[in-house]
Specification:
Elements lengths: L23 H9 L5 H5 L5 E4 L15 E14 L6 E9 L9 E6 L13 E6 L2 E3 L2 E5 L2 E5 L13 E4 L8 H14 L19 H9 L7 H29 L10 H9 L6 H15 L5 E6 L5 H14 L3 E5 L3 H15 L5 E5 L4 E3 L17 E5 L14 E6 L7 H8 L6 E6 L5 H7 L4 E5 L9 E7 L3 H13 L3 E5 L14 H11 L5 E4 L5 H13 L4 E4 L12 E7 L6 H8 L9 E7 L6 H10 L3 H12 L1 H4 L19 H16 L5
Helix pairs in contact: 4-5, 5-19, 6-8, 7-8, 11-19
Length: about 675
């Protein structure tokens, strides 16, 4: 409970509290952190905590984990190391309060000259960093540190208790920000932080108690329940936005964009294979959506090679048969061109007009003489396939845009998707992703969408064998590639960078391209990367599709959609730099034909520890299992960028792996809306 009751509320400006001196520099610093009001400050949560009631044992050698130490500075000196700009500032520290063993460690900062004016002999510090051995010395490079004053009491904001460590910006230091938030919490009454969640049992916590605890927990054990409470509150607000968005979308009403299905039946009968049960189920779900007088908003998830394109074709055929136009937007020209070729081959014999619009091309692909649809006495709509160029109105959509299919939807921003959808009236929307999304992320970020999952691979796909090898074994790998090419197959050789980097010791496609031409004599080797023009990339991919080029040295530009069934070998260099889901996506470029395929993850010897993380790719091709593991290891911020969802960033995103918490948030949001509440 606060000790005073000032006439403040959460919207009160920090400058008006008088608790911090706002000069120009600090004002800019607080602005960079997004801290303008009391509410902003209280929801600026710590990135970690330090238990300053006790400190870690003073290190005598290298440690496997960072330590928090209370020390005193006994020496400071600047030195110049080898190499340009290697100015080093070293500080010798000993345990605060003396140490009969005479232990000391060295703190080092490289190219941080201003610290020589900040730290001096006699300063008392609290520091956090990872000890390592350098020669005979124990050193900590670039530790977090804070200058403290002796004699501070247990009631102080900075010592003698568990203290928060906040994200900072230039102009705002740790003590200033911590002191401000401490004083705000001490001054504010509980009713300035009223409970927001519906009444219920949340581990005995209220919003006020959780907020106070997350900044200054009495014990570290009490942090987790407080964080969970605030995560539930944050997720519930997010679910309210999604559920309100969904309700508003449905309230607008719409029209049926679904034809009788005769063309679809004809199309499926012409296929040389039968759809999987998952495809049949998903087509039925989409058909019901298209027929309903409510705009469809459906997410189609499918593992690599699960057959999303066939499902999209079914939706498109039902729409154009009803006389409406359809659009398919792809993130790259390579993928748009590939879709154009596929749909032209599939739909032209059915009398469907297929067009391509990209930044550099505007092409019609219909073969009207195959007027199967016209023969039924029905005017059909047109399918337009394109890249971002579709959003600029060049397509026209003379029959009205009935269906927008957005492939690899996470590659587009919200405004880009809306610009396409907005070209129609009550347009049905099918968004597709070949990146399996863990169930909790689907619920958290796509709660406004219906979800269909293709959880079955078509028959006839080749087996993929995945292995982990060292980059020092490249010559052995090259021999294996030569053997496969000799049987008529093709290979991808993938690198993380386009050009060499001075900062990273990582293979680059442009450099390794020359090396691979020497390793594969007599074979046509091509180079593909994102800085090439669209025409150059198209030409390279066309030669690779035709088999003129036998090996393709590439960056991750091939990650999405490239389909060359004859390619059965992929070497991915510096695989430790990629997420599991991205590696799975890359691997999906092989195994698309009947041939046994091989994916080799190449890692440097010094990255041998990465083998444990990558092992799951050897064990399974189940993209959803891999996505769950990726979420566990990297967290949702890396697995799924929230900016693409048009939703606010989450401060407690690490709880997205907690399925029950996300489900509870969805249930609470529904309950709030049921009684007329809102976000």
């Amino acid at each position: 409970m606060g000790t005073t009751a000032p006439a403040w509320n959460l919207k009160t400006r920090l400058e008006d509290t008088g608790m911090v001196r706002f000069d120009k520099k600090s004002r800019e610093g607080f602005a960079k952190l997004g801290l303008k009001t009391i509410g902003d400050a209280l929801t600026h949560y710590p990135r970690r905590h330090e238990d300053r009631t006790r400190f870690d044992r003073f290190p005598e050698g290298a440690m496997e984990h960072p330590v928090c130490l209370h020390v005193v500075v006994t020496d400071c000196r600047a030195s110049f190391g080898k190499g340009k700009g290697r100015r080093c500032f070293e500080v010798t520290v000993e345990p605060y309060g003396g140490d009969i063993l005479g232990n000391r460690i060295i703190l080092r900062w490289f190219n941080v000259a201003y610290l020589a004016k900040v730290l001096t002999v006699g300063h008392e510090l609290v520091l956090f960093g990872l000890p390592k051995e350098s020669g005979r010395r124990v050193v900590i490079d670039h530790p977090d540190f804070e200058i403290v004053e002796g004699g501070q009491s247990a009631s102080d904001a900075h010592m003698g208790r568990i203290v928060p460590i906040y994200p900072l910006s230039s102009g705002v230091n740790q003590k200033t920000l911590r002191g401000l938030i401490h004083d705000l919490l001490d001054s504010l009454p509980d009713d300035i932080l009223p409970d927001w969640l519906p009444s219920g049992d949340y581990g005995g916590l209220t919003r006020s108690a959780a907020m106070r605890c997350i900044h200054y927990p009495p014990t570290l054990a009490e942090l987790a329940p407080a964080r969970r409470y605030l995560a539930l509150e944050e997720f519930t607000r997010l679910q309210l936005i999604l559920q309100q968005r969904r309700a508003a979308h449905h309230a607008r009403g719409g029209v049926s964009h679904c034809g009788p299905g005769e063309i679809l039946t004809d199309f499926l009968a012409r296929l040389p294979f039968a759809p999987t049960r998952a495809q049949e189920r998903t087509i039925a779900e989409i058909r019901r959506d298209l027929a309903a007088p409510v705009p469809m908003t459906r997410l189609l998830q499918g593992d690599v090679g699960a057959g999303k394109t066939l499902v999209a074709a079914a939706a498109i055929l039902l729409t154009v048969e009803a006389g409406y136009d359809a659009a398919l937007m792809a993130p790259t020209q390579i993928l748009a061109e590939q879709h154009f070729q596929t749909f032209r081959d599939w739909l032209a014999p059915l009398g469907i007009d297929v067009r391509l619009i990209t930044g550099t091309r505007d092409e019609a692909g219909a073969l009207p003489l195959f007027a199967a649809a016209a023969g039924r006495g029905r005017k059909t709509g047109t399918l337009t396939i394109g890249t971002h160029a579709l959003i600029h109105g060049r397509a026209g959509f003379e029959n009205g845009l009935g269906l927008a299919v957005i492939d690899e939807q996470h590659k587009f921003g919200v405004a880009q998707r809306e610009a396409l959808i907005g070209q129609g009236d009550s347009t049905d929307v099918l968004v597709m992703t070949a990146t399996p999304i863990p169930r909790t992320l689907t619920l958290a970020f796509y709660g406004d969408l219906d979800v269909s999952i293709l959880d079955e691979l078509p028959a006839g796909r080749g087996k993929i064998i995945t292995g982990i090898r060292l980059t020092t074994q490249t010559e052995h790998a090259a021999a294996f590639v030569r053997d496969q090419l000799a049987t008529g197959r093709q290979a991808y050789l993938v690198y993380p960078l386009i050009d060499e980097s001075d900062k990273l010791d990582v293979g680059a496609a442009t450099v390794e391209f020359e090396a691979w031409k020497k390793r594969l004599p007599g074979c046509e080797v091509e180079l593909l990367h994102g800085r090439m023009s669209a025409d150059e990339k198209d030409a390279v991919m066309e030669r690779f599709r035709r088999g003129t080029a036998r090996a393709l040295v590439s960056t991750t530009v091939i990650e999405v959609g490239v389909d060359v069934p004859n390619a059965n070998v992929m070497l991915i260099y510096h695989a430790e730099r990629f997420g599991l889901a991205q590696l799975h996506q890359l691997r999906g470029r092989i195994g698309r034909g009947e041939h046994k395929s091989f994916c080799v993850l190449m890692i440097p010897p010094e990255q041998a520890a990465a083998r444990e993380r990558l092992k799951i790719l050897e064990e399974t091709r189940d993209g959803f299992r891999i996505a769950d593991e990726d979420l566990r290891l990297r967290g949702p911020g890396e697995v799924l960028g929230t900016q693409q969802s048009g939703l606010p960033d989450l401060k407690f995103a690490d709880f997205l792996g907690d399925a029950r918490l996300v489900e509870e948030a969805s249930e609470l949001a529904a309950a709030i809306l049921a009684v007329g509440g809102r976000a």
